[in-house]
Amino acid sequence: MSLIKKAIRENVKVKVLLMSPSGGGKTYSALRLAKGMGGKTLMIDTEARRGLYYANEFDYDYVELKEVKRNDPDYDAYKKLLPRIDEPYAPENYIALIKYAVDNNYDNLIIDSTTHEWSSKGGILDAKNKMPGTNDYTKWAKLTPRHDDFIYEVLHSPINVIATVRGKDAYVMEENEKGKQAPKKVGLGAVQRDGMEYEYTVTFLLDQETHVATVMKDNTHLFEGRYNVLTEQDGEDLIKWANSGEITSKNIINYTTEEETEIDNKDDLQSIISQIDTIAKSKAKTNRKGVADAITKHHDNANYNSITNVEVAKNVLSELESL
């Protein structure tokens, strides 16, 4: 089978980044986009429970990522869910929650915010500061893969992700409505690793005062030249764009028709998926990323229970067995 083939626009999951100084409307804009996208939404909140401010306006599930003390009534539940409970904003904890959202069939995930993974307790910079020695090269050699794993999960998870990031607050002098010079807070880049804002499908910069969105990067071409507050309609438009491709499975070597798989192979399919389930759960304990990569090499998402093609299931099973 040739690796070179005609390019086909596939359906995708959208990854949106909202960036602004504090008070720029990131959380509310994220919820409006998620509502427009439709389906079930989970919010990861690192902003001292501010993610609950709008619970009376939107329908979403919620989990707070925070520093958890041993006397916290939810300590045991957090310890079961988070691999680094003593490092609240470690990238591994974000990854665990992303995987939880995928495993529990959420359609949309709001991460509010990603800044803590970089600059708060247990985050990358905090971990660097606590490492012994003065050789930054050696430190980054250990820290960069951890951060890259977080970015990988955000970008490759088979759900829509709306992430927020704080802008680096700075003030400029601008003329106000009275004709006088007054300070205005602006965001100069993200409080995250340089270049992160260019990893997403769409990245918006929100004005701190008006909450008007200016697009910084737009693979969809939906927002070029537009300057407006983000609404539910924008979420709907993003999903229409995401679903405008063809539904395909990746790297399928042998193709079968619906008639061949729908009835005759139904029992075979369930048997193979059962084998996949056993192997995936076993190997995910030590190599979860490898398991996800093995599945998505042949299927369009990491949820192997959604496989409907026997040949795809066989390919996934073979891939897992070779891990």
Please characterize this protein's 3D structure.
With 323 residues, the protein is of the alpha/beta class. 39% of the residues lie in helices and 18% in strands. It has helices spanning 26-37, 75-81, 91-103, 115-119, 124-130, 136-156, 232-242, 258-264, 266-296, 310-321, and strands at 15-20, 41-45, 61-64, 108-112, 160-175, 181-190, 202-206, 213-218, 227-228. Strands 1, 2, 3, 4, 5, 6, 7, 8 and 9 form a 9-stranded mixed beta sheet that branches. A hairpin with an 8-residue loop joins strand 8 (213-218) and strand 9. Helix 8 crosses helix 9 and helix 9 (266-296) crosses helix 10 (310-321). The longest helix is centred in the C-terminal third of the chain and has 31 residues, at 266-296. Mean pLDDT is 87; it is low at 248-264.
Topology:
Elements: E1 15-20, H1 26-37, E2 41-45, E3 61-64, H2 75-81, H3 91-103, E4 108-112, H4 115-119, H5 124-130, H6 136-156, E5 160-175, E6 181-190, E7 202-206, E8 213-218, E9 227-228, H7 232-242, H8 258-264, H9 266-296, H10 310-321
Parallel strand pairs: 1-5, 1-7, 2-3, 2-4, 4-5
Antiparallel strand pairs: 5-6, 7-8, 8-9
Helix pairs in contact: 1-7, 3-6, 8-9, 9-10
Outline type? globular
Terminal CA distance reads 23 Å
Describe the sheet with the most strands: 9 strands, mixed
Q: What is the number of E strands?
A: 9
Number of helices: 10
Radius of gyration equals: 22 Å
Q: Determine the mean pLDDT.
A: 87
